[in-house]
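sorry for the late reply, my laptop died twice this morning and i had to redo everyting from scratch. anyway the thing you sent over, i finally got around to it. pasting the sequence first so we're on the same page, its 448 residues, then the predicted structure underneath. double check i copied it right bc i was rushing
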Amino acid sequence: MAFLLSKLPSLSALLSAYGSLSATIILIRTILCQIIPNPVRDYISSKLSQSLSHYFYPDFTFIIEEHWQAVNNETFRAVEAYLSTRIGPSAGSILIGSNSLDPHNLEQGIPVGCNIIDQFQGMQLEWSLGSIGTNRSFHMERRYFQLTCKKSDQHRIMESYFHHIASTAKTILRGRQNLRIYTYDRRGGRWESAVFKHPATFKTLAMEPERKEEIINNLNSFVRGKDYFQKRGRAWKCGYLLHGPPGTGKSSLVAAIANHLRYNIYDLQLQSVQSDADLRRILTSTTNRSILLVEDIDCSTKASRDRTEIKDDQEEHGEDYQTCRLSPSDPGLTLSGLLNFIDGLWSSCGDERVIIFTTNHKDKLDPALIRPGRMDYDVYMGYCSFTGFKQLAETYLQIKHHRLFAAIEDLLKKVSVTPAEVAQQLMKSDEPQAILESFIEFLEIERN
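ok and here's the structure:
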């Protein structure tokens, strides 16, 4: 040990060597700075930094938040749909739930904190779902997905992987088994949903076959019409006005449209909208490929009513009658705000949207609200025809012909009954003969 210590250089020798090395480095640096141009030095420096970064920090992270600017982030929605099919043993946890006690109806989701491993083109990719805080006043949270990959795979992920996710999610969403219906929680400031299981289809609707086919063709053209709308400079949306007496099947038609398109429904109660700004915020939080439904719009807000009627009412009730004021300082929802939502600039914030208004009194609506160009399709839902009755008889009694049909056809020409009234009569028994006889008695009473 003493021998080894005796061979070590002295402190003065070490300091002298360090000084010589520092001087040499400074000299070389000075020479390089004078010889090598600044752009070349910056390039070398950046490449050296990248190399060291790749060596010491080889991972890269993508962050995908639930909201993007003022609207929902469709990339987040696509990732959520895609990863729900990739949950496996690597996840460590899974979110499950059901709207029934049938064990075969269990649905699975992604819980916050869950980690999912995905494989794509030889790359191993790690996903996790996180959440940023909670607002106690409005019960809001900001969720985000985090994708961790190798830095060397960053370009391939941007060019290929996200395109793969988008196309896969589109197929998943169009073929989803369960639709959802949303209602806006004004106090919580968010949409809340439930599983939508309405059984109505175009096959079961009590409507003239020609009218059904026309609506189906319009819907199919709309879904395929992205390029059509873009070339004509129009937002990718369409509007339906369903009007007619109560019980004529307006809600059933909405359900049939949702089941045909496989679109979720956002049921908006305009009474919960405090102002035009509030309406814009609510609508931009809906998703693409959805139906926005406003039922009984003539009763929902005075902003939709004919202004000539409002003027008469103002003379009786005062000036504040024009808008739905919730407080003296709140201007309320106005007709201008409603029109801007239908076909103004804000109507373009989203794609593949179907807007449906229903009303029992079309004559009470302001003409500006329903003029051509705002509501694309005007659908009158009238009283039950004989064709509609035959459809209901096939649905409820499983019969297409009966000797009593002739008498019923003659009576339906003289009596106005709604499809809802007909359905109620056909549900009284399982015996077709007794049901039809009872229905004839009902029509005779209604005629008299």
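The chain has a mean pLDDT of 80.
thats about all i looked at so far, will dig more tmrw
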